[in-house]
Write a structure and sequence with these properties.
Elements: H1 2-30, H2 33-59, H3 73-103, H4 112-139, H5 142-169, H6 174-202, H7 208-219, E1 226-235, E2 238-247, H8 253-270, E3 274-282
Parallel strand pairs: 2-3
Antiparallel strand pairs: 1-2
């Protein structure tokens, strides 16, 4: 499993190297800010791909004496670093685009290579984003998902740049700078999504979707009369779940153990790579109704 994640991440590094170099050369030759902004974007994608590659190598290491919950948050930390890098790119793109529009220096040279580099970028980005999303879903990897989001964003931003080149071909050179601004807005949107999710995980925010799923599973077990102190945190691809359940005090100890095992198995079947801790408690006979979740 780790080898597959590493292979997908490494191929993304190679793709990012190709796209960054190709766009940078053509952008400098033609003077297209749209292509140069794409080169910067791909350059950040390259750094992100490298970070992803190393994070997936580390994140799946087993727990040790210093990291009792494993190394999964390396993936979340890498996603936060990628967000910061994307924001730096946006600042440069917006500054340069506004400067060109206000100064009137928007003339660029559109050649066949301008279209070739953008078309090549779209083809490579589609291929890599599909491969990364597939691997991310299979291995529940936020690092690979973040990398896939980078490449899928490039598809849309490259399409915008392509539109700007077509307009410039007909003499509307300002469209190139406008296209660069649109690219920056797209990158800002992606940065917000990546950053918010990474920070939520790093701050141990309970994921609502998983919380709802666990609560639904608990309610399917009639033996669970009540539950409380449900606590959920994620770390990379792993999800840690802890809950206290109340069971009829007359239930045999062995049966209680079997109930806990059944609940744990059901949760693990529905939530990949989950680590479940269930603490059973006897319920007072005067309270045999299932209440809403208590914290």
């Amino acid at each position: 499993m780790v080898e597959e994640k590493k292979r997908v991440a490494f191929l993304s590094v190679l793709a990012a190297i190709f796209l960054t170099g190709f766009k940078l050369i053509i952008g400098i030759i033609t003077g297209s800010l749209g292509i140069l902004s794409e080169a910067m974007h791909s350059g950040l994608d390259l750094i992100a791909a490298i970070i992803t590659y190393f994070s997936v190598r580390i994140s799946d290491k087993p727990p040790d004496e210093e990291h009792h919950f494993g190394h999964g948050k390396v993936e979340n930390l890498s996603a936060l670093i990628e967000t910061i890098l994307l924001l730096v790119t946006c600042a440069w793109i917006i500054y340069e685009a506004i400067n060109r529009l206000t100064s009137g220096e928007t003339h660029i040279e559109v050649t066949a290579w301008s279209y070739i580099v953008v078309a090549s970028s779209i083809i490579v980005d589609i291929s890599r984003s599909r491969a990364l999303y597939k691997a991310a879903r299979k291995h529940n990897s936020q690092a690979l998902e973040a990398d896939a989001l980078h490449f899928s964003t490039d598809i849309w931003s490259s399409a915008v740049v392509l539109f700007g080149l077509i307009c410039a071909q007909f003499g509307f050179f300002f469209a190139d700078s406008v296209a660069a601004l649109v690219v920056a807005l797209i990158v800002l949107f992606v940065s917000y999504r990546l950053g918010k999710r990474a920070i939520d995980v790093l701050l141990d925010k309970a994921p609502k979707e998983i919380t709802d799923k666990v609560q639904l599973i608990l309610r399917t077990f009639p033996e669970v009369q009540e539950y409380h102190a449900l606590k959920i945190r994620t770390s990379g691809a792993d999800t840690f779940i802890k809950v206290n359940i109340h069971i009829n005090p007359e239930t045999h100890f062995k049966t209680v153990h079997e109930i806990c095992d059944a609940i744990e198995k059901e949760i693990c079947n529905n939530i990949p790579r989950s680590k479940v801790y269930i603490h059973p408690e006897p319920l007072d006979k005067d309270h045999l109704q299932i209440p809403e979740e208590k914290n």
